[in-house]
């Protein structure tokens, strides 16, 4: 029985014959129960999908997904992936090529009371001012102000490092409060190494956001295509920089945080999640390199296959790290669905290029293996489009850009090659049915490495030997504390 639905590409209605059950089930779980229920169509890459959605919100979804029209906070409960601040009246569905898994921002604090009588007042004021400036920028700006926010974090670090100095003994004096922009979950920990972890992690997430903005500078258009080779090269530099921040978190900061504090850390600051984000950054850097290789006339099939296989290995490791985490929140599930989508794309690319190389052999078994590779690539490519849809619909809702780089090429070439080679070697497949086994993909040493990150030097104010801290009687100290409480 045909079902009347809205064609989101125009104002006219069309007759729909087939519904994708998986897409409907996935989306209705996230939808409000409201009747009557209609089916809605929209497009991911070149494929038309249909989903089940409440009637009173279907036009909003249509315009959001395809024309990026604003939604009010009442229409969508979860904030956008690429909003840094939380004071916007309207939220836009972002285009995502490089995913920033989560972002956590500081809550205003005052260093004067916990450090009173221990450090000079002007130093405590600088700490308070610098940290509160970060909190202010994070709440009132969007992705366009990421460079300014990164500068503020870099200026705060030399001051913060003094609090981590074991000799000074200030590590547990100040309570640091942070909140997530996705779930508004707050955490408060009296440990300066936790603060350092949060700051460097925030720098990594902002750098990933900046890399995405290099590839898709205009978030307001319907089908933004990824930008030029120069921007892709710039994005690779930012990805390995973000990987360096995350690697530093894993190797230099988390190891200094005691177990009882680690148990309280939010999901996005847990070791496996940070490791998954670190590996994902390298995987997407390799994805950018493959995109450049596909566009290059000088890149050989061997180079393209190696990059595709490396990308597959990276995403496989990232998926393993994230899938072992317990209690993944909304952003964690979004992150996992993104990695699965990219893993399938990389696997399709790897089988396609491996098939092209294998087909150059002269033995019948080579041609049969090649056909198996092409057919596997075609099947995996179809699954990757479903995974892309699942990622887009996993809250918070996002959009995928028009196919670009290797996928723009593969979306056309894989089905064509699979059909052509299947017909060409049909007689071999009939004769040698026992050889119809998908071959193992070759393994390569992973070549892309993170940029090494080092903390800046401690601020000179911490090195001063002539701190002028006024003497204070116990009575005056209590009096001052009472005044602060007021």
Automatic annotation (TrEMBL):
<dbReference type="InterPro" id="IPR004328">
    <property type="entry name" value="BRO1_dom"/>
</dbReference>
<dbReference type="InterPro" id="IPR038499">
    <property type="entry name" value="BRO1_sf"/>
</dbReference>
<protein>
    <recommendedName>
        <fullName>BRO1 domain-containing protein</fullName>
    </recommendedName>
</protein>
<comment type="similarity">
    <text>Belongs to the BROX family.</text>
</comment>
<dbReference type="Pfam" id="PF03097">
    <property type="entry name" value="BRO1"/>
</dbReference>
<dbReference type="InterPro" id="IPR038898">
    <property type="entry name" value="BROX"/>
</dbReference>
<feature type="domain" description="BRO1">
    <location>
        <begin position="89"/>
        <end position="486"/>
    </location>
</feature>
